Amino acid sequence: MRKRIVAVILALAMSVSMMACGAKSDSKQENTATTKEVDSMGFDELKKEAKGSTVTFYGWGGDDKLNDWLDNSFAPIMKEKYDITMERVPMDIDQILSQLSGELGDKNASEDNGDIDIIWINGENFQSAKEKDMLYGPFTDKLPNFNDYVDGDSEDVKLDFAYPTDGYEAPYGKAQVVMVADTAVTPDLPTSAEELKAFVQKYPGKVTYPALPDFTGSAFVRNIIYEICGYEQFLTMEADKETVKEAIEPAMEYLRELNPYLWNQGKTFPDSSTTLDNMFADGEVVLYMTYGAYDTAVNIADGKYTETTQSFQFDKGTIGNTNFMAIAKNSANKAGAMVAINEMLSPEVQADRYDQLKVIPVLDNTKLSDDQKAEFDKVDLGKGTIPQDELLSKRLPEMPAQLVPIIEEIWNEEVVGK
């Protein structure tokens, strides 16, 4: 009797296990078009193919406002308009690419059955992924909204950290470095590297920046390099450590001179831009820097920053870049991914992102109708921000992606604790 009961339990367990495996297999096969079939489809066919499917969106999950917008604004649009379910998967980009590499390296896996569909990506991560043949494309020419509303010939779109996108990425949002201070605490805001040095000396122990390779800390250091060394030479510079080291030495010397006056005397640096943001909000430091050009307004509105907080730039400008959406080479739902990316590029969605998240839009204003322009024009950017025309007039290009890790390595060797 006991053996019979055990046998029944084992049979039930196997049945449940097979049902679970079958469910997983079914979900993976909800979109059955192969890459070759998708390549030959027009956009209407892509929408038909994607109907009823699920699209996974992999990207950094540390921005609560963005997460909320993706889940509660964008996802409902996709469900209502296309019957597509959006599944957001929060993950750091290095983990995403590691997972993708593992999937692509599995000889037993289908080339069209991967877990990852859309990837939020840019810079050296995109270059690495594209050169390792981890991405699907080109695909942007298949997207009506890209063709109708994006300037595909602009350097912000055709280049990603000076590396050609070649249609393997669609723009998601624009970013630009700004610095942030409370004018009630520090009324004189520095407008150059030399003024920043005087500012740091005036407020000893109250200024720092995130440790590289933090994305924002790295951008801040590159901005100092541009200020002191100029930027033109780096746009075509060979990715050779000694060449780069010689070119940036004046900026490294400048940063070493700052160290004695920085928080913790420059012996250590905050581990992330999030940590530095909290230090600034708590008054532990008097300066913050961010790629989020309009973050100040959002934080003032949320009560995190004081009403007297202000964003500012150096007179020579600050680095700006575009972040993108790519599609995994083995995506199980390339059709759905393209429909979702196309919708992200619609004037309505871009205007809503601009309004709700204060993200610089990626559309070409000259391609918009008067009514569409009005939707962007009526957005209130809030307090403490730099007017968009002024911000973009001081926008400097990013360095080639291959120079960034070299500079980060040199900074760690030549600046930290010196």
Automatic annotation (TrEMBL):
Domain of life of the organism encoding this protein: Bacteria
Xref: InterPro entries: SBP (IPR006059), YnjB (IPR027020)
UniProt keyword Signal, yes or no: yes
SUPFAM superfamilies found in the cross-reference section: Periplasmic binding protein-like II
Signal peptide start and end residues: 1-20
Any Pfam family: SBP_bac_8
Keywords, sorted A to Z: Signal
Name assigned to this protein: ABC transporter substrate-binding protein
Organism in which the protein naturally occurs: Dorea formicigenerans
Top-level taxonomy: Bacteria, Bacillati, Bacillota, Clostridia, Lachnospirales
